[in-house]
Design brief:
alpha+beta, two-stranded antiparallel ribbon, 34% helix, 17% strand, globular, binds zinc ion
Length: 175
């Protein structure tokens, strides 16, 4: 598996790409899973924090940045956190095209031989190919932004910014 590029912290969800964004193990090696804010010297910086407290912090930032009502932002943050290793007990892979969590077998797309994809969801990828191979990142933003805006009760332009930023962390759209 390719691990270059961007990886989400499995505690807070922050995208990590630069080396200094990764936390450290007890021996000083970079953590594979956690960011420098969450994890240093082999331990969580805030070991007692709960997923709700974490969602409040993350949701608060999202609410300010993207004009989302605070409770909705917190709910959304919690949904995202619940796919991370620290909170789910295992790392749940996200579709590398749309970001949907591949939590259950049937969420995953299919390869040409009928086996389940480990990278893409069933909406994006079937029978070994993208369901919409010509979709551009801009079109994807236009498609997802109104749904996001409706879901979170935020202005569509803000949803566009949020989706564009999010998609740029996913392998299919990374430049
Ligand atoms: Zn983190
Ligand atoms: Zn997908």
């Amino acid at each position: 598996m390719k691990t270059d590029g961007i990886r989400a912290c499995q505690s807070c969800g922050m995208p990590m790409s630069a080396k200094e964004q990764f936390g450290t193990e007890a021996d000083g090696a970079p953590s594979k899973d956690y960011c420098t804010y969450c994890y240093r010297d082999g331990a969580f910086t805030n070991p007692g924090i709960t997923i709700d407290e974490m969602a409040k912090i993350g949701g608060g930032m999202m609410s300010q940045m993207y004009a989302i009502p605070p409770e909705r932002a917190e709910g959304f943050a919690k949904e995202q956190l619940s796919c991370l290793k620290r909170w789910a007990g295992r790392e749940i892979p996200l579709c590398e095209s749309c970001g949907m969590p591949l939590a259950r077998d049937e969420d995953a797309g299919t390869e040409a031989d009928g086996s389940r994809s480990t990278r893409y969801c069933t909406y994006c990828y079937r029978d070994g190919g993208f369901t919409e191979p010509d979709l551009t990142r801009e079109q994807a933003v236009e498609r997802y932004a109104p749904m996001m805006a409706a879901n979170l009760g935020m202005p569509v332009e803000k949803a566009g910014e949020m989706v564009a930023r999010y998609l740029s962390t996913l392998p299919r759209w990374r430049e």
